[in-house]
Amino acid sequence: MISPSQHLVLVGMMGTGKTTVARVLGDRLSRPVLDSDAVIEARTGRTVREIFAADGEPAFRALETEVLRQALASDTPSIIAAAGGVVLSATNRALLKSSGARVVWLCADPATLVERVKGGGHRPLLDTDPAGTLQRMFDEREPLYREVADAIVLIDSRSVGEVVEAVLR
Ligand code: S3P
């Protein structure tokens, strides 16, 4: 169970529903919700796509680390929806481990995600060959999600409500 003082962090691939699930959890637990992409966009006044295009992925990743660090350092226990690539950085993984936050991995078969990520939006990495890219990303990231996760919730055949219940359990 999550303690009243612990942050709850959702990690997982693009399209697993981290943002939606985080919102429902925020309502259920009466906690603020932070979505790392949304914080970056609000702070920079630019979209994730614009940052990737103008400054490149490393610049985006640096912002991501700063946002994660600040979110985890906050005294207000929150629900943090951490964008899919957060686990790529060893610094971020160490931050998650040392923060005392409860980390839940929303895990899906990459094939499930292909339909869910349609529409481009804030996911420039999926502009070309989304199915192949998601599979490659999953292969690379699966051990990293596993490394940081305190719990794993399989989302493939679950509704948002069922995922929320599983996270709370
Ligand atoms: C990314 C995930 C996206 C966004 C960016 C890169 C990734 O966030 O940060 O497109 O590398 O997995 P979501 O996981 O919220 O879609």
Written overview of the protein:
The chain is of the alpha/beta class. The chain has one domain (8-168): P-loop containing nucleotide triphosphate hydrolases (Rossmann fold). It contains eight helices and five strands, in the order βαβαααβαβααβα. It has helices at 18-29, 36-44, 48-55, 57-73, 90-98, 110-116, 130-148, 160-168, and strands spanning 8-11, 33-35, 79-81, 102-107, 151-154. The structure holds shikimate-3-phosphate (S3P). Residues 14, 18, 37, 48, 83-85, 122-125 line the site of shikimate-3-phosphate (S3P).
CATH topology: Rossmann fold
> Class, according to the CATH hierarchy?
Alpha Beta
Number of structural domains: 1
What form results from the Cα inertia axes? Answer: globular
Rounded to the nearest angstrom, the radius of gyration is 15 Å
Proportion of residues in helical segments: 40-55%
- For the record, give the distance between the C-alpha atoms at the N and C termini, rounded to a whole number: 7 Å
User: Per DSSP, what share of the residues sits in E-state strands of 2 or more residues?
Assistant: 5-15%
Largest β-sheet summary: 5 strands, parallel
Beta strands, count: 5
Oligomer: single chain
CATH superfamily: P-loop containing nucleotide triphosphate hydrolases
Structural category:
alpha/beta
- The overall pLDDT average reads 96
Strand order of the largest sheet: 2-3-1-4-5
If classified by CATH, what would the architecture be?
Answer: 3-Layer(aba) Sandwich
Give the number of helices.
8
Note poorly predicted spans. none
Q: Cofactors and ligands present?
A: shikimate-3-phosphate
